[in-house]
Amino acid sequence: MFNAITLSQIFVTDQDEALDFYVGKLGFEVKVDQDLGFMRWLTVCVPGEPGREILLEKPGPPAMDEATASQVRELLAKGATGGWIGLTTDDCRKTYEQLLAKGVEFTQEPTERPYGIDCGLRDPFGNAIRINQPVRVG
Question: By the number of CB atoms within 10 A of the CB, which of 14, 32, 37, 54 ranks highest?
Answer without folding.
Answer: 54
